[in-house]
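Troubleshooting entry. Yesterday's outputs looked truncated, so today I'm pasting the complete records for two proteins to confirm everything comes through intact. If either block looks cut off, that's the bug. Protein one:
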Amino acid sequence: MRFLSPGGVHAGLAPAHPVGIWVGAVGPEAPAFTGRVGDGWAAPIPHYLPYEKWRASQDAITRAAEDAGRAPSGITRVAQLVGDITEEPGTVRLRGEKPVRADAAGWARVLADLATETGFDSFVYRPEGNGETQVRRWAREVVPAARTLLEA
């Protein structure tokens, strides 16, 4: 194997903050790997890892972290959610890979439940429809409502 070393290239300044290594992999060994060495886990969108497998993956990450002598709370847990914020309330059941379609209150309940029952502490929202309108609704309606639920 041959290695090349570019001349005149410098690494630059050190980061102003710690740089974490996050894992977003799917597979039977991915949660244990994340627990042993990862700083964060981005649960793959439900198309790749169905909602009903998120809890077991969280538990496997926690066990592997504990077995490695790491604090599981030091691993950031991110749920990536796909769907739309609707005007109509709806019953949300996180199963399979079905996108979430609910009003802001329904979305807030999903986030609160994922935080309290499934161990997620961060969320990424990917709208299906009009991205700008959906992201505005997420920021103005869903996030404040979820924070209120989580503070209660």
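Protein two, checking that the full record survives here as well:
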Amino acid sequence: MNDIAPTDDSHVRLDRLADISQRLLARARALGASQAEVSCSEEHGLNVSVRMGEVETVESTRDRGVAVTVYFGQRKGSASTADLHERSLEATVEQACAIARYTEDDPAAGLADAALMADGTFHDLETWHPWRLDADEAIDMALACEAAGREADARVSNSDGASFGSGGSLSVYANSHGFVGRERETQHSLGVALIAGQGEGMQRDGWYSIGLARGDLEAPAAIGRRAAERTAARLDPRTAPTGQYPVLFAAEVARSLVGHLLNAVSGGALYRRASFLLDSAGTRLFPDWFGIDERPLLRRGLRSTAFDADGVATRDSALVAGGVLQRYVLGSYSARKLGLQTTANAGGVHNLQLSSNAGSLDDLVRGMGTGLLVTELMGQGVNGVTGDYSRGAAGFWIEGGAVAYPVDELTIAGNLRDMFAAIEAVGAEYDPRSHIRTGPILVGRMTVAGGE
């Protein structure tokens, strides 16, 4: 197998998308638009799935699309198409203009300020690592992953299947300020879900690996063995005692806590006044050692970019420093709604890194005494307006600084503001499978509701 296709025409295809965007912007100006922006994309992928040693699906995909947004003063219209023929492209611009003429003025509408645009230079952030492989090779990897998991532990009785995916995307964003930004990205993944035990005592778990390059993936056999280990460890669960205990979130679920923070400090929630963190910029939410840095220009990061969805230049910056919320997460529209300036987060955040003050997961377990290690969360019991938090959980009960037994059918509850303030440790072993890079997070005290 070869990592790089023999002929990489990605730059040629990006040139084509850039040319389409310029023609559409010119057409929008000719139809009277005061401002316009265009997003063009191409995507391709190969996805396979297997179960119990048999192939279930093989899918090859190729998608493309063009989205046009025009502004007539502060009236906005948008339209999109997957047909790149000239007649369809012109009709798309005309449709967007027609919509704009019948919408009401929105004082926050319009492109981001021209002075904030990225310089448009093609930044190589090492996000492009095409992997040339055929369906048979992809199937072999998925089969090897599943087989390793099924063979690793005799208690593994069944499989929910293994899957492999590989794909790439090319995109161009351009606007009437003269900005043209190009991006290309690949992503590859391999994972398996297994079942251990029999009858009503069956337990399900798994593992997966994801990365921008082939070399970023764990070996198929290693993924399968880890999935088997995790699944077998869940057998014979008990319920935990009800009470107030330390709760340690394993890294793969700890990032959900950061997600709740992001939802609360995002522009949309703030200008709708649907957040428990209204007017919280500049206030202390976390312990004084705690920090979160955004690193959009990180090479080979899962969400690296030189510009956001508005074309605004990105830069490294702190979201939380010294426990204090430094800023909100804003695109140009939400910033205008709030009377603030964009933070170059139109389209979301880019590569967050949490500071750590502790060692490995094992170190944290040894130090927590008695409490709960959470490895799975269920349900959506989070109130974004009040910060109240209540979710189903499963994991392991910790006694004397060691794993005592697996637990499930639990509920953990608290208030996010209190939980943030009660964070005692963040481990150094971060989960690389997300753009939110965090290790395990220990919250000093939460309500754990079990069956005892």
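Both blocks look complete. Sanity check on protein two: Residues 1-5 have pLDDT under 50 and may be disordered.
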